[in-house]
Request: fold
Amino acid sequence: MSRYIDTLPTPAHVEPKKLIVLSAPRTGTHGLYNALKLLGYKPYHMVEVLAAGAKATRIMREGLEGEIGLGKPYTRKEFDKWFADYDIIIEMPFFMLRSTLKAYPDARFLLVQRSPEKWAKSYENTVGKLSVRTQQFPFTMLKYLDGMIHELNTFSRYMNNICTKGAGMTEEGKENLVEHYKEYIATVKRLVPPEQLKVITLEDGLGWEEICPYLGVPVPKGLDWPGRNVPEEFAAIATPVIQGGIRRAVMSLTTITVGIIAAGVWYRRAGGALPMLSWFK
Reply:
């Protein structure tokens, strides 16, 4: 199957990447995203994906498929198309780490790590719950009627399987979340040269003093660091996207139903006999 990103034109200009953030979701990445925007940067984060809709979500999903062997891995060519207008990449590398490192071998990287147990609990309360929800009715039906729900359903299924090592959000799966996160952090530190990687522990603090010197910019005065993306904030971001998908799916279903009824009425008026369904006999 052809990839959507292959249909996009080669950009006339690609913003040089000033920082690539290798942190997993649920490690202060949303606050970092907002902070970098306040500094004048143009970061790409999951918020950008959800705002752009099904096409951007498909690009993300197909990039993940390439990373896990279900498709062709993304290279610098694909990333340049995807991130042409952005100078910092956040969260996406967590889904396609090796492809990212291969595409940007000389980049400056940042990793915000946290307690594996706390990360697993945060994942369970946010991404995990959303993943479980999208694999249940009515989403298993609505995914055939809305592109965004289809993409989120597929992507979340992949990520849930990866992060829980196939066990899902069971007790075993929750234990596997901890192990997966530990393995991811160890992999980043093994693959990225130390001189290109700044590591910050979330529990030790994440703010202007930790970020600005690494970027080579002054610490802003009198400007508060944006808050962390707590579960309630995550829900506020994700819920409108899900609700929008449900509305579009219902509208599609209504359109299809009305069309079938109209066709039946026309056929009957034209003298055709409607079939008697077996369960009505």
